[in-house]
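Colleagues,

Please find the record for the two-part complex below.
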Amino acid sequence: MLQPLRETCRRLLQDGTVQVVIGYGQAVRAVEPYPVFITDPDDVGQLVWNEQCRTNLVKYLLRKEIRVLGKPAIVVKGCDERAIVVLEQESQIDRSQIVVIGVACDGMAEPRCEVCDAHQPRFADHTIGHATNVAQPAERRYAALCEFLEQPPSDRMAYWKAELERCVKCYACRQACPLCYCERCIVEKNRPTCLDTSATLKGNFAWHIVRAFHLASRCVGCDQCSRVCPEGIDLRLVNLSMARASEASFGHRSGTDPQAELVLGNYSQQDQEHFIR
Amino acid sequence: MTNAASPTPVGEFEPKIVAYVCNWCTYLGADLAGTNRLEYPANVRIIRLPCTGRIDFNLIVKAFEIGADAVLVSGCHPGDCHYTSGNYHARRRWILFRELLATLGIETERVHFAWISAAEGKKFQQVISEITSQTRDLGPYHAYREICEV
């Protein structure tokens, strides 16, 4: 897998199709690979591919310091690729100006990989390898959430209280999220004043409600937010709840269909309203 | 209003209800209830906003932060929005937002939604009375307030 990946990248750089390749490189001491930005075809040897390539690199497509390097090629897994689809739907990127190198992935030993149905990239310009794992059935996708929701509300609240108490408001979850791209985040503005931005439990709840809801029906479940959290707060459950609601109510799975209409920002007269008096 | 007829005994729980209403329908519905002398519980604090589409989900959270026991969000019936589609957009938002509240363990039975038109003073009275008595049965909402006091 690694050799064809490096060859593809070398070719793209050599013939001038792209000016930079965003991929995974091997850190000297750390086990986790770190992102590398390769501009010289002779440096493609820095690229690696292994079971530790969990990071979703899509965020780097939006970073100004990467954009100035020229047209990019990016190495993605089937799951990361969904973020590119959403960015295109939301007019944040010009897909024709990006070369997507999809690498087949049989899982990175993460909880979400156990329920993955995107082992093989679907929208990539170049696909490397063939995934052998089969797609998991849809019912399994939200099993963790369903189990959590069996608890009474007070227990759920207690769980989040314990989790969010540890939040230090570093906003790493936001910085790493491929779909959090506002130039200026709502918590860095003076308005709305109803939003508490303090680093207290109250402010932490307010932040995590905002973060989750601004990603409602957009989050692709790459789990990058949970992965980068220095306090190990697992945000999967809130993200899953929004994904489940948008799939159940609007039949929308973020990033799986480039032609699909976005959920929020559109409406249908047939939307359910059993909860409205 | 109702309290004038039957004052609440001292120390008994009186729910605080925050109602975010749209300027064009529900606010006028509330106004009609008033001009028709329809009595409804004085537990409701009405906050008028331009449109249900304007009602930010943060406002619902904020109401609980500052001590609301229940929140009502109310606007024009589908098809009646002054801005054509504000209530449709709001409806979608609530469908998702209710799920988020449930996941976080915030009691969704304390968040109410209604369509009340400018002609429905009677419905406004009924909805407020229902919510007040329901909230009275549920008791004060401490869970979220405790978070805010830490």
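The mean pLDDT of chain A is 91.

Comments are welcome before we finalize the supplementary table.
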